[in-house]
Design brief:
Layout (H helix, E strand, L loop, with lengths): L4 H23 L3 E2 L16 E7 L3 H5 L8 E7 L5 E4 L4 E2 L2
Antiparallel strand pairs: 1-5, 2-3, 3-4
Amino acid sequence: MYYSKEELERTRIEGEERLKKMKEEEKGYKYESSNGIKVICIHCKHEYFHKGSALLNTRGLTFFDLDWLNEAATTLICGRCGYIHWFGKEVKQME
């Protein structure tokens, strides 16, 4: 199977774009809190995080096997040191 120069160039460009996106996702993203304050790791001062969430379990709902009714917190995991920051309000990803 043969490819034209245009097809090879298009494939190369697509591959570079995918690699760039993968590296960016691996590094993480910058975030700000709901009141506009930029989030910075309190342990290592890094600015890039991976977003997640965690349930805030209560004894009462756990007793009745209703953990899914508990509220969730937003977590940001530092891309450098792994320190986990917890937020009770939503955080926004910065551009």
